[in-house]
Automatic annotation (TrEMBL):
Top EC class, one word: isomerase
Family classification: Belongs to the phosphohexose mutase family.
Domain of life (superkingdom): Archaea
One annotated GO molecular function: magnesium ion binding
Cofactor list: Mg(2+)
InterPro entries assigned: A-D-PHexomutase_a/b/a-I, A-D-PHexomutase_a/b/a-I/II/III, A-D-PHexomutase_a/b/a-II, A-D-PHexomutase_a/b/a-III, A-D-PHexomutase_C, A-D-PHexomutase_C_sf, A-D-PHexomutase_CS, Alpha-D-phosphohexomutase_SF
Protein name: Phosphoglucosamine mutase
Species per Swiss-Prot/TrEMBL record: Thermococcus barophilus
KW Isomerase (keyword) present: yes
NCBIfam families referenced in this protein's UniProt entry, alphabetically: Arch_GlmM (TIGR03990)
EC number: 5.4.2.10
Pfam families, sorted: PGM_PMM_I (PF02878), PGM_PMM_II (PF02879), PGM_PMM_III (PF02880), PGM_PMM_IV (PF00408)
SUPFAM superfamilies in the cross-refs: Phosphoglucomutase, C-terminal domain, Phosphoglucomutase, first 3 domains
Length: 452
């Protein structure tokens, strides 16, 4: 598709995600649902109000009514759409840099638009076949504040009180409007940092990967808290440190929840993304369940296809019993509940999850070179690894599962000009060997294909 990537439409506001595009998306969505109510939320980026107003104008012009929710996190927009809307739109670029913004569209169930729905929106936009309302049928705007209702909904679902002390890092994003209050309502003592809204993200980069939030480990040890929780700019992502200040790898956290859900249901299907660890497969299989992998950004498609009881990709968790959307607030509530019910610290709980050496690193790559780089990388890796390959998966790039349980993934980012290289080895030595091979091949391919 030309506009939609792995998580809606995302990119620079001066060249891709412009007010003109937001207007067109609004008109296309209004045409697609053919009247009705659309819930709109936005993050704290400097460009979000600009894009929100253009989007609303497009919707109103087709006769749609708008429920304006103002500054809210993405999980709350999904929840509100499920409760009140015929569709929903979040203005956010999630963890992208502040120069970017994005548009994420949800259906009436609070689920991100499926691929076929995104394709239809693109068809309407490029054909400009918009519905036009008469002057007396133009839609209306209603402003609502639903933060308290959303917090109560999460509290009711989690159903737990705690006395843990939590260090919370909001990345200067909209999660800061919900998380500290939710945690305090649960009874937790909360210490917040980077919890004031600022679209420049002055505290840290908004993506909660380890290198951006490593300082939390020292803070955990200095403050003596029970765990630390970090979110991204729109609060759909969550990262965690244990009480010793150790970062919990995102795949370990997925495996922990997957194990719990499969044990609780005495079996069932877990859906995860193509870039996740074999440790998830092992704990799910041992608990009597089955794992299916899907492309990045398509967990909701996977749940629909495989009837999954739980779905997750790195930093993103869907709890179907609560809702069919990524929800970090439910995740943090359930994690705290787990720690209390286990009556032992998080560092002890995660010891039950097997660990394999894993590395992730990006190679900068212009979007126009991605197809050719991927072709070169696949051919070279296939040639170098041919005797070791067990299977090849070609969703979201190419993943080589090897006979010893190690694997290599090379995939183009759907949101940024990068090629992502992910490698997991059964041993540290194997992981290093595979990473040097894969990263070297991709880096050389990018350099050789750049215009001179």
């Amino acid at each position: 598709m030309k506009l939609f990537g792995t998580a809606g439409i995302r990119g620079p506001i001066d060249s891709k995600v412009t007010p003109e595009l937001a207007l067109s998306v609004g008109k296309a969505l209004g045409t697609y649902i053919n009247s009705g109510k659309v819930a709109i939320g936005r993050d704290a980026r400097t460009s979000s109000v600009m894009l929100e107003n253009a989007l609303i104008s497009g919707l109103l012009s087709t006769g749609c009514d708008v429920i304006e929710l103002d500054l809210i996190p993405t999980p709350m927009l999904a929840w509100a759409t499920n409760k009140l809307g015929d569709a929903g739109v979040m203005i956010t670029a999630s963890h992208n840099p502040p120069t970017d913004n994005g548009i994420k569209v949800f259906n009436e169930n609070g689920v991100e638009f499926y691929l076929e729905q995104e394709e239809e929106l693109e068809r309407i936009i490029f054909s400009q076949s918009y519905k036009i309302a008469k002057w007396d049928e133009i839609g209306k705007v209603k402003k609502l504040d639903l933060k308290e209702r959303y917090i109560n909904a999460v509290l009711k679902f989690v159903e737990h009180e705690t006395n843990l002390t939590v260090l919370y890092d909001g990345a200067n994003g909209t999660g800061s409007m919900i998380a500290p209050y939710l945690l305090r309502e649960m009874g937790a003592r909360v210490i917040s940092i980077n919890a004031h809204l600022d679209g420049h993200f002055p505290g840290r980069k908004p993506e909660p990967r380890y290198e951006n939030i490593a300082y939390l480990g020292d803070l955990v040890r200095q403050l003596g808290v029970d765990l630390a929780i970090a979110q991204d700019g729109d609060a759909d992502r969550i990262a965690v440190f244990d009480e010793k200040g150790n970062y919990i790898p995102e795949d370990t956290l997925i495996a922990l929840f997957a194990k719990l859900y499969v044990e609780e249901n005495k079996g069932g299907v877990v859906v995860t993304s193509i870039n996740t660890s074999f440790r998830i497969d092992k704990v799910v299989r041992d608990a009597g369940g089955k794992v299916y992998r899907v492309p990045l950004g398509q967990l909701h498609d996977g749940i629909k296809k495989y009837h999954a009881i739980f779905a997750a990709e790195p930093w993103k968790f869907i709890h179907p019993k609560f809702g069919m959307w990524i929800d970090s607030f439910v995740t943090m509530g359930l994690l705290i509940k787990l720690i209390d019910e286990e009556k032992r610290p998080l560092s002890e709980i995660v010891k039950e999850i097997p660990q394999y050496p894993l590395i992730k690193k990006n190679v900068k790559c212009p979007d126009e070179l991605k197809p050719k780089v991927m072709e070169v990388a696949r051919n070279e890796l296939e040639r170098k690894l041919k005797d070791e390959i067990k299977e090849v998966l070609t969703i979201s790039g190419v993943r080589f599962n090897l006979k010893d349980g190690s694997w290599v993934l090379v995939r183009p980012s759907g949101t940024e000009p990068k090629i992502r290289v992910v490698v997991e080895g059964q041993t540290e030595k194997k992981m290093r060997e595979l990473f040097e091979l894969a990263y070297g091949i991709v880096s050389k391919a990018v350099e050789s294909l750049k215009p001179t």
